[in-house]
Amino acid sequence: MKTRVLVVDDSALAREILSRELSRDPELEVVGTAPDAFVARDKIVKLKPDVVTLDVEMPRMDGITFLRKLMRYHPLPVIIISLLTPKGGRLALEAIEAGAVDVICKPGTTYTADDMLVELIDKVKAAAWVKVPEQNASIPRTPASPQRLTMIRGTNKVVAIGTSTGGTQALQRVLSAMPENAPGIVIVQHMPQYFTRSFADRLNQLCAIEVKEAEDGDIIVPGKALIAPGNYHMLLRCSGTGYCVQIKDGPLVSRNRPSVDVLFKSVARCAEHNAIGVIMTGMGSDGAEGLREMKDSGANTIAQDEASCVVFGMPKEAIALKAVDYIVPLDSIPKKILELAENRNQFISAR
């Protein structure tokens, strides 16, 4: 059965292009389009789409306001389409907090229409598998952060994390549980350019560790997490007795840029047994081969379990490749990372 899609955008040209390109995929069917939130509301009720693509900036009612109303009264998977600007990145994070499944940016000088459409098709297919919970206005959508753990002794191990659909919330839960002396962390989250900077800044306000969008040459140190910038690959490189990151352009790998496979394979070559690999919620197979290379090189590897994933795609593929040592629920991932980093089994929770 095809996934039924409603395209909501105030631009007639955008509606035409999105409808035409999405319809070319045999697994998708565009059942309608809407120029604003009010028309979209009526068409959602009438056409019952499986997934909605929603522009952020629209007349009469902006996309974020409409999204909040939709999640409260008629929840269903929504993919936000935003401008490739710092403001667009902030709005995209606001949309995710309001209930959007994923975000994608409109084409720009460094992000072509072809790249955007490839990514959009994948995200629509992933969104169709997401079960959006009923929203209650009195209950915040984002759960309280998990209790922060502590480490008795430091470590120079490197933790590499890869995630996609549902990963923004998952990363918040993992990173906010990390103590100030947590091992250095490198992350690929499938997000567009500018969006990753807003995301990193948001996490930096919530976590005990420092979180920043990675820049070329950044050194891996305990207590810091580096997030690959949108539309660029990130690799781990040896730097004297430690590690740094390289940020580079290049083609899509495993249909993504940044790609989890690119990061994981570089960690396998550079850090070998001194690394921990973590693959979390997301559609597709990006990261599965890279995680297997990490495991084969001597790294410990972790996959998020099916029950706690928004989409059990990337972890499932890694498990199928026998690339995973431990399969654990999302909220147990921080404890498992620290256990492997310190090679101990007992933890003291921070008061």
Estimate the strand proportion. 15-25%
The level 1 CATH classification of the largest domain is Alpha Beta
Major sheet characteristics = 7 strands, parallel
- The sequence of SSEs as H and E is EHEHEHEHEHEHEHEEEEHEHEHEH
Structural class determined from secondary elements:
alpha/beta
CATH architecture of the largest domain: 3-Layer(aba) Sandwich
Terminal CA distance reads 51 Å
Please state the average pLDDT score: 89
Morphology call: elongated
Determine Rg (CA atoms, Å): 20 Å
Helix content: 25-40%
Low-confidence stretches: 137-141, 344-351
- Count up the helices: 11
Tell me how many strands there are.
14
The tally of domains stands at: 2
With strands numbered from the N-terminus, the spatial order across the biggest sheet is 8-9-7-6-12-13-14
Task: Give an overview of the whole structure.
- By secondary structure, the chain is α/β, with parallel strands linked by helices.
- The chain folds into two domains: 3-127, Response regulator (Rossmann fold, 3-Layer(aba) Sandwich), CATH 3.40.50; 158-342, Rossmann fold.
- Helices cover 35% and strands 21% of the residues.
- Helix 3 (63-73) packs parallel to helix 4 (86-98), helix 4 packs across helix 7 and helix 8 packs parallel to helix 9 (288-297).
- The longest helix has 15 residues, at 113-127.
Quick synopsis:
This protein has 351 residues and is of the alpha/beta class.
